[in-house]
Amino acid sequence: MIDDDQIPESIKLRYSLYIPLLFAVVLWLVKLAEYVFGFSLTFLGIYPRQWFGLVGVITSPFIHSGFDHLISNTFPIVILWAGTLYFYRTIAYKVFFWVYLINGLGVWLFARSSFHIGASGLIYGLVCFVFFSGIIRQSTRLLALSLLVTFFYGGMIWGIFPLEAGVSWESHLFGALAGFFCALWFRHEGPQRPVYDIELEEDPEDDDDDGMTPPPHIPPEIRYIYRQKRQRDS
């Protein structure tokens, strides 16, 4: 696999935007078809604990109650999925798949008896994945992304509580849980916190140094790496 550093930024950006934009186009085509032909696809939403409602695990993110609902979901899903593809290229599709599946099954198993539609569960899943993954990995760049997501979408936390009638807070809740699960599960895959090895000049007058004790100015987090390197070179 080609290293991310070898891919031009322009290509990475185009690659990251292509699939999210295509997904958004499909959402709009579905809603426009409902509007033009005068029918509703709400029956393709998730209806908990009923076999006919199980199909909604796959189809519900494509169904929206109106254009306001669709617009409110379009921009976040494009931005968050594109950001996931850009910063977590090697695991982005796996994360999206598991958020999609866990959110849908969670709603089908535990939510209220009503049709649950919309892509907001996916949005909550991606928000939580990006936020918690940045914290877990302790990478400066990914932490900055987490803070940016918090700044723009931190208010979404209230969406996981049953505060507004007609809103599937269950989709928000299970989407958030799915994102948190993926951040933990894939913590050893994808981008990691950079570990810096160092080259130190040996003091030619210090012949008694056994190579096992790093100088006092070495940061604690890389002392172990320093010792291992000195052992290999000795």
Walk me through the structure.
There is one protein chain. The protein has 234 residues and is an all-alpha fold. It folds into 2 domains: 4-185, Rhomboid-like (Rhomboid-like fold); 196-234, no CATH class. Helix content is 57%, strand content 0%. It is built from 8 helices and no strands. The chain has helices spanning 9-37, 56-59, 67-87, 92-110, 120-137, 140-153, 169-185, 223-233. Helix 5 packs antiparallel against helix 6. The longest helix is centred in the first third of the chain and has 29 residues, at 9-37. It is globular and about 75 Å long. Residues 199-208 have low confidence and may be disordered.
SSE inventory with pairings:
Layout: H1 9-37, H2 56-59, H3 67-87, H4 92-110, H5 120-137, H6 140-153, H7 169-185, H8 223-233
Main attributes of the structure:
Rhomboid-like fold; mainly alpha; 234 residues; 0% strand; 2 domains; globular
**How many DSSP-defined strands?**
0
- If you consult CATH, what is the topology of the largest domain? Rhomboid-like fold
Helix proportion: 55-70%
Largest sheet, described in full? none
Tally of discrete structural domains: 2
Low-confidence stretches: 199-208
CATH architecture of the largest domain: Up-down Bundle
Number of helices, where a helix is a run of at least 4 consecutive DSSP H or I residues: 8
Radius of gyration: 23 Å
* CATH first level of the largest domain: Mainly Alpha
Short description:
The chain folds into two domains: about 5-185, Rhomboid-like (Rhomboid-like fold, Up-down Bundle); about 195-234, no CATH class. The protein has helices spanning about 10-35, 55-60, 65-85, 90-110, 120-135, 140-155, 170-185, 225-234.
